[in-house]
Predict the 3D structure of the following.
Amino acid sequence: MSGPTTGLAPSLQRSRNIALLAGLAGMLGCGIGYAVDPTQTLRSYLVGYCFWTGIALGCFPLILIHHLTGGRWGYAVRRPLEAGALTIPLMALLFVPLALGIRAIYGAWADPSQMAHHAVVLAKKPYLNEAFFLQRSAGYFAFWTMLALWLNRLSRRQDNPATEAGASRWLGTFSGPALLLHVFAVSFASVDWIMSLEPEWYSTIFGPLWMSGQVLTAFAFMILVVAPRRDEMPRPDLTAPEPLNDLGNLLLAFVMLWAYANLSQFLIIWSGNLPEEIPWYLKRMKGGWEWVGVALIVFQFILPFLVLLHRENKRSPARLARLASLIVVMNLLSTYWLIVPSFTPGKFTLAWQAPVAVVGIGGIWISAFLWLLGRTPVVPGNAPEPEAHHHEGAH
């Protein structure tokens, strides 16, 4: 068993400073955008917020699954995943503009004058109202913050041989229930933050669909952090070709899970052809939005699927990192496709505030993520030694 190994890769330290500057410039741009067009800026802010918060939320299932199943794949990315989960309090703070602009974003149910014209929406008022919306959001953040702190505390106790057994026992016992609670929290948050943009529409699979994108993007992002920096990491053996192959296999599984969730929702709604469900897709299949959908099918499913079928691609840090970059970018496009047609149905639009908000929130998030990553041992203390790894791989 190895002791804790510390130190952030030099290239990541430089990235942290660049991200902070970009984030501050982006947030300044958001402020200018709000002065020019408050409604458009808040809608664009929602896109950037859901994308970056999605990466933080996608870290939780991956951490919990690793504690439940074990496996050497998790030791290379577990500390980056824990740092990502610990950014949740920051995302709670960045939620404040959305809370203050709730009527500009969710006017269909938050604005009484608009709600009065829709009987279906009016019937949902006991759930869709400003006070309950904010209370639920506060509850989600409280749960995720406690979960992130709990996971981080026990993970650090695993670094100490004297407390490792007890911490592992706690994590093994409660990771399953925590994962179940997380699924419920993300499902309700998906209804509140995205599905309620069109309150007359509903889909029972939308929560798992959004979560599959979160897990896929979080995993791709963490691969992007560790794979190209093998020579800078304290334990380069954890990102050797064989562990990278394991990460690539899991990435392939998450790509297929994302495609399965999206295809399931599409087939159910398209075959049902109900007037309260099918308009959601019709808005996203014309006016330029259909090409966004085609791009998602090709570059977030077909291309990654084909590339990850080849063993050599999964064992190459450079190829795996390039594919991970593509998946992260495509999930940003997917988030845009989920949200923006609710405001501009049947007409593709790209306001300048959208990329500004993505850069602003993303820069702040990445800077915080790298700062948190630099404060902990980069590799868990209970990671298997290289000798144990080779012995294990011989079977």
